[in-house]
Amino acid sequence: MPQPKPYDVIVIGGGITGAGVLRDCALRGLTALLLDKGEPGRATTAASTHLIHGGLRYLLYDRLTTHTTAWDAGNVVRIAGDMLTRLPILWPLYRGQKHGPETVETLLEAYDGFQRMKGGLAHLRLGPEETARLVPGLKRDGLLGAVSFDEWWVDAVALVERNLDSARIAGAKVLARTTVTGLLREDGNRVVGVSAEAADGSSLELRGRVVINAAGPWVDRIGRMAGLEIPLRLRKGTHIVYNRPLVPAGLLLEACDAQRHVFVIPFPGGTLVGPTDTEASTGPDALAAGPEELSYLLDSVKRFLPDFPVDFAHTTTGARPILGQSGSEKLLSREYEIYDHGRGSGIEGFLTVAGGKMSDFRLMAKDAVDLACRKLGHLEACTTDRFTLGGVAIPVIPDFRRPWRPLKRFLRGHPRLRELYALFWLGLGFLAHLARRLVG
């Protein structure tokens, strides 16, 4: 019996990254199949803060990642604009906090330069009376005012589904509840497909000319099927979820340990508080919210909102698939990497997409599929930024530039230099900010 023709690309993992890869493949005319061990989008993507953003806090130590993320967030806004809601976020400022008002506003002024890439509004500085009027439940003692900035809120699972729908319309296929159990190999070092187990227990052998590992925090597990080690440093993030809106706008609050900040995010029908950011002590399948994390989040919020309720509906917990790095956790880059295992390890036909964020999923997919196309000899260029998820052509794409890649790659390997580079730009911004304040 003749074997079915292999797919051009098989994608492992149905989170936002895998969904973006599948859409990119399909729009370039490649035959493509995606496999997910559960329901697509219901794992790591669903446990996110549901923001399409540029990464404000990375300006403190990883400026070029903020640049890249804001750049591609602009593409996401254009292709999925009907799904996004502009979310104003207030950052309340109090006497005695680690960062004073002038330092905080300098950070927001630096972010304004990237906001325009993603259709964001410039920041505002508010006095104490304005701030208290906007958020009546805020503690008044020591309140100096607030700064505001905006991001985009999205139903993250729906964003995955819309990408998959776009891919299906273009000819791609999706198999949910299908677990990859191994990689098919020929000649010892070429991956030619996957073996998998369907939900009914049946075994499958699916052949593909290129296999792309986009399994998020599970990419190392898939890599081990080919004898590869993919370095990850998993960070655990927990959110508390309420089933009713509790604040009139988003809030960014200094956490009770004064080391990081916690979001309070209103969304249609509910409120999200989080995330935590701790080293994951188990694999991604076994993660669960611990009592110390819940206390951390609630204590952080109640410092500023004394009447905030402690009875919540449920929690979400996920693992951020951060690239393996040494050094302090506060300096961990959220950069991504496309691994060509044929070049690095001699395992041909196998690629991995690791790291990154939901906000630049389209760019991660583009870079991965660009590499797959080179291997396949396929000349079609990426068009995922030129059509909405509904298939409507985008008439105008602003000419914003990505960061210079050699510098970005160099700094990723030197975290202290990366931090100094970011602080240099913030220092220049602070001097400019003080000059503007002095002249009124």
β-strand amount: 25-35%
Morphology:
globular
Alpha-beta content class:
alpha+beta
Q: Any low-confidence stretches, pLDDT <50, length ≥5?
A: none
Give the topology string: H per helix, E per strand: EHEEHEHEHEHEEEEHEEEEEHEEHEHHH
Report the span from N to C terminus: 82 Å
- The radius of gyration is 22 Å
The percent of residues in helical segments reads 25-40%
> Which whole number gives the mean pLDDT?
95
In short:
This protein is an alpha+beta fold and 440 residues long. The chain contains 11 helices and 18 strands.
Structural write-up:
This protein is α+β, with helices and mostly antiparallel strands. Helix content is 31%, strand content 27%. Strands 3, 4, 5, 6, 11, 12, 13, 14, 15 and 16 form a 10-stranded mixed beta sheet that branches. Strands 1, 2, 7, 8, 9, 10, 17 and 18 form an 8-stranded mixed beta sheet that branches. Helix 1 (16-27) packs parallel to helix 5 and helix 3 packs across helix 11. The mean pLDDT is 95.
Q: What is the topological layout?
A:
Elements: E1 7-12, H1 16-27, E2 32-35, E3 51-52, H2 63-79, E4 85-94, H3 101-115, E5 124-126, H4 128-134, E6 143-153, H5 156-169, E7 173-175, E8 179-186, E9 190-197, E10 203-213, H6 219-224, E11 232-242, E12 250-254, E13 261-267, E14 270-274, E15 278-279, H7 291-302, E16 314-323, E17 336-340, H8 341-345, E18 350-355, H9 361-376, H10 405-412, H11 415-438
Parallel strand pairs: 1-2, 1-10, 2-7, 4-12, 10-18
Antiparallel strand pairs: 3-6, 4-6, 5-6, 8-9, 9-10, 11-14, 11-15, 11-16, 12-13, 13-14, 17-18
